[in-house]
Structure formats: C-alpha cells, structure tokens
Amino acid sequence: MNTHAITVRPVSDAVIPDIVDLILAQEFRQFTADSRLRAVRSRQQIEAALVRGRQEGGQPLVALDSRGHVRGYVAPSVWTIAETSMLRAFLSARNGVALNLTLPHPVEEDARSVTFALLDGLNKFWVQHNTTGDLIRWPSRDAWIEPFLAERAFQLDSVCASYPRQPLSPPTQSVVKSPSILTRHARQEDEETLVRLLHEELRFHELYTPFVRSSSEVLDAFRKKLARLWRGESLEEGAPLIIVAEQAGEVVAMGENTLLVLGSEEEPGFTPSGRYACIENVSVQEEARGQGIGRMLLEAAFAAFAATQFEQYLLWYNPANVLAGRVWPHLGFQPLWTTYQRMHTVAES
After folding, report:
1. Predicted confidence band at 2 (pLDDT cuts at 50, 70, 90)?
2. What is the per-residue pLDDT for 349?
3. What CATH number is associated with residue 309?
4. How many secondary structure helices (H) and strands (E) does the chain include?
5. For residue range 26-76, what is the model confidence (pLDDT) as tens digits?
6. 135 shares a domain with 89
7. How far apart are CA 163 and CA 36, in angstroms?
8. Which are the contacts of 214, defined by CB distance < 8 A and separation ≥ 6?
C-alpha cells in the first residue's frame, strides 16, 4: 500500500481531534527550536480556534494518507489590501493566505508529499478566488519548507526579525560620527522631505525584489499616517514615531516607527500576543550613507520608546536587499518568521 498517496479534502468533525494532535506536535517542535515563538497552546485553545474558523465561513482542508490518517491541515483565505494602504508597496491587491498551515515532522517520509498536496489544494482555492498574489509565512528556524515552496514558484520575500528590549550592542568596528549630524523628532515642515526619503527607499528596494513597488497611492497613504502625527495623536492612538537626522541643518534620513499590539489569535500566530515596538522604515539618502546614521536613528528610536510598555522590537526586512540583508543581522536583529510570496497577473488554470 502506498502511504504517500495523499488526498486533500474539506475538514469534517470526525478528524478534528487528529488535526489538534498534529498542530500540537508542530507547535511543540517549532517552539523547542525557537522559544521566541508563541508558546504551545492547549488542546482546548486549538479546538476553539478550529471551530471559530469554520463558523466564520472558512473552508479548511485536511491532508489524508491512503489509510485515512490525518497528515496535514490548512485554512485557505484571501487578504484584500485597500488601494489606499501602504501595504500596497509590498503586497498585491488580493493575496492568497495560508492560515494555520500544519505539516508533518520534516524527517517523516511523507512530509514532501503532504506539503505539495496542501500547496496544490491552496492553489486551487486561490485560483477560484482570483488572487493576484499568494503568501506563505513560516518560522525562520524551520526553513526545511523553503525548497518545496520554490518548486511552486514562491520566492523569499521578507523576514520578520526581533530584538530584545535592551540597548543596541556596541558596534564591532569604530564608526566616526560627524558632529554635524543630529537627530530629532520630525516636524510638520519636514513632510515633503520625509515623503521623498520614503520614495527613494522604495525605489532602492525595487532593484532587488519583484515585490516592492513605489506609487503615488503608497506615498499618499504615508502622508495620511503623517497627518495623524501632525494632529497630535499618540503612538497608542496609532500615530507613527518619526525621527529624522540632520546634517549641517538638512534632513538626510528618517526612521518611521509604530506600536504594534498583537492578540492571541493573530495570524500567522508565530509571535506571542503582546505589544511590540516596530521599526517600520529607516531611510537614509544615498549621499549620506556609510556614516552610521541608520544606527543613530535606531538609538534615538530606542530612547523614544523607553517610556512605552512593550515586549520587544520587531522589524521586517528583505534579505535580497544588499543593505538591509547586511545591516539588520549585523545590529543583532534575529529572524523570527519568514514570508514567501509569489505574484501573478492572470488566474492560473
């Protein structure tokens, strides 16, 4: 009997206990490899989440072997990004999303077959729902899935990295800081320069990844974020924290930061619930790079966050970007989970 013949079908009540077992095993394995991930949930919590997902109209899929044993699980979904959202710089309009993707231990003989069967099941759902791009998010230290995703045309997109709530480690080499470089909080009269710096950063990203795109809509969305700051809204209310660097009286760089609050059931669920200080963008104009300005902006942001309640720092970077892929790991940010993306302009048959 070929136990690697995997079928994918809608979830029934009869297989829920076995799905819970599989999810528990995966969460334990991944948390053991990286204790920064969300702690292993109880059986009751997982069961409640599965029931809630089905009640909300989800169409979860289960992978079964030829003997009917549960070998994998996923809940396909679609994430539509508003045209006015800054996320349009990084994602397509309608994104296929894999919620709670659960696979066998990678050493098991059928891990490859189960992975491809679920990816094909996801793809069928996404094609039916006319997605323009698809996303898979997975813990960074569990990277065995990457070659299988590559076979289905997914590319490494971005890494979510964390840093503990503590000062930055001292630089490994001496950085001579110009006394003419100063940091301060952004002011409303800086707006045009801030928009220009973001546009320059996005255009630089475009050289290294097919997923980042600058547009007038994205820049308009950034202006709306800035308007919340100019109105006097706080981090708690959703306004950004913007630090700028001046050189000889001219703004040459900015750091955009926000406060992120995650609930216990936030997808993809790899990050524990809590409050996080997020480093959204660090933009240094090309002529000013190489002087340690990015580190100065980060240190100023850390100081500004000192009076705020949060667990740790988070940021997203693209490893293919030659600057980001070198700078953030060098500063001590450790990959937590990784996003793989593929984009398409027409429905696949």
Report:
1. very low
2. 38
3. 3.40.630.30
4. 8, 12
5. 999 999 999 999 999 999 999 999 988 777 767 899 999 999 999 999 999
6. yes
7. 10
8. 89, 199, 202, 203, 206
